[in-house]
Every structure is written in C-alpha cells, then in structure tokens.
Amino acid sequence: MNAHSALWGYPNDGPLGNAMEDFISSINLHPLNVKDAGPIFQQRNAKVWPDLTLSIGQHLSNATSWEVLEHVSFSDHNFIKIQLNIKIKSHSYTRFKAAMGSQ
C-alpha cells in the first residue's frame, strides 16, 4: 500500500500514511506493528514496512507481541511472528440430537 507512517516503522510520515492512520482510527482498529522492528521487506537498496497487522479492540493489541524475524525466508519479505498473550477459558456442552433429525 506504500503508506509511510512512523506509527508502523517508517522514518517519516507521508500523506497516504496519514490518511491510512485516520482510516484505521475511524473504524476502531489498532496496528500491532512495532515501530522499532526491523523492515518487513528488504532488497539491496530498499527497506520498507508495507505489511500492517491490525486488531479489533485495544485490549487485544495490548496482549499481543509482534516481531519481524530474521530467519531465511527465501523471499524479500521477512517472516512476522505474532503471539497472543492471553488466557483462554473454554466451555463445552454435550448436545443430544433427536431421532427425527430435529434439534
């Protein structure tokens, strides 16, 4: 999307980045990107951060870690590791089905 914003790692803001920040904020999304992380895409003469990871709700973004990995990816895009640091409570219920197919 080529939207430069310091919020997700670029060294400076651009008009498209500012518009993207406004849009993200207007629909209550939160970027998970860490602005001090390394570039997501790199070639010999370019280092950029084109990939955004967005979440719904501030609580989820506060409970998430996001990092760019430097493992060999055989691509000019680096891997991104997203880890949810939340406890999940799970409930299951047994449901019986009637013989005639009704529920």
Automatic annotation (TrEMBL):
One of its GO terms (molecular function) is catalytic activity. Signal peptide: none annotated. Pfam families: Exo_endo_phos_2. Residues 1-80 form the Endonuclease/exonuclease/phosphatase domain. InterPro entries: Endo/exonu/phosph_ase_sf, Endo/exonuclease/phosphatase. It comes from the Eukaryota. This is Endonuclease/exonuclease/phosphatase domain-containing protein.
